[in-house]
Design a protein that fits this description.
By secondary structure, the chain is mainly beta. The chain has 5 helices and 18 strands. The longest helix has 13 residues.
Length: 303
């Protein structure tokens, strides 16, 4: 399918490897039991969880695979810089380490996490061992404004044109068919709904209702899965709209808090439902980009 990728602007945006974050007091209240728990969460360098791994079952809360990056300093100028990093970086963009012992290592943007405002990146094991908190990483940001020629009713965001080309999206009349790992009803979507735009951040699939999750087959959802959200319109922020369809990428793990779960960063949306999801167990960015679990022969690819 033709796009306007030859007219898009590529810019450099940078951030620092973020320290892990922990709320004062440390405890979070588990939504399904009411028990106080202390668990690893957002930020830092996650060595043993990668895109392609399960998004569920880890002894963690909102854990981010790979490397978490932001511009952390206070002040309006730095907030603007972090906004630019989070909005302009796109899933599939190239990233390169520009300081520290891992300088020169190359990686890939895999998602965005709202609230904490992190951009998530995948690097190989050798680079992860050399990276340190505070190291700077530059992203060659490309994708903002991406469109499919002839499909102005479908809005694309947070997506590198090269990843779009690998997704095997095809035209079906005046609609497009997109391979997805699963279809999620909008009623399950929680934290992150109602934001003014979906060009950064994510919103969460609630997984605390076990019977519903089992019925829909969502227990085996993976980090990096491309998923469809039925009756969700993200054209001007995240909202419920009957008949609409949104496509996103699972970017962080499940969570213990009420209203939370694996996070999804939007890559495509149609308020008029002009997107047709087609189930494909291989619809995962780790497989498409040969990153994460797909760097190691024999890992990933099967549910």
């Amino acid at each position: 399918m033709k796009t306007n990728s030859d007219r898009l602007v590529m810019l450099s945006v940078t951030g620092q490897v973020s320290s892990p974050m922990m709320a004062a007091g440390g405890y979070r209240i588990a939504g399904n039991t009411g028990a106080p728990v202390i668990l690893p969460g957002v930020g830092g360098i996650t060595y043993n969880i990668k895109v392609g791994d399960s998004a569920c079952g880890w002894v963690a809360d909102h854990v981010e695979p790979g490397v978490s990056v932001k511009n952390p300093s206070p002040g309006e100028g730095n907030r603007s810089a972090n906004n630019a990093l989070n909005i302009l970086a796109a899933i599939g963009n190239d990233a390169v380490v520009i300081s520290g012992d891992a300088k020169g290592a190359k990686g890939t943007v895999t998602g965005k996490h709202g609230g904490i405002e992190h951009v998530l990146m995948d690097f190989d094991a050798a680079a992860l061992q050399k990276l340190a908190i505070g190291d700077r990483i530059m992203v060659r940001a490309l994708g903002t404004g991406l469109k499919l020629d002839g499909f102005d009713h479908i809005k694309i965001m947070n997506l590198d044109p090269r990843l779009l080309a690998k997704m095997k999206v095809r035209a079906v009349g005046n609609k497009v068919e997109v391979p997805v790992a699963c279809v999620v009803p909008a009623k399950l979507m929680g934290s992150g709904i109602g934001k003014a735009h979906a060009h950064s951040g994510d919103y969460d699939i609630q997984l605390l209702d076990g019977k519903t999750i089992e019925k829909l087959g969502l227990a085996d959802i993976r980090l990096g899965d491309i998923v469809a959200i039925k009756d969700a319109d993200h054209t001007f922020g995240r909202m419920y709209r009957k008949g609409s369809m949104t496509i996103g990428v699972v970017v962080h793990s499940d969570c213990v808090l009420s209203g939370h779960g694996p996070g999804v960063t939007t890559i495509m949306t149609s308020s008029g439902g002009r997107i047709i999801p087609r189930i494909d167990a291989g619809a995962n960015i780790a497989r498409l980009l040969k990153i994460g679990t797909y760097r190691t022969k024999g890992r990933g690819g099967k549910r």
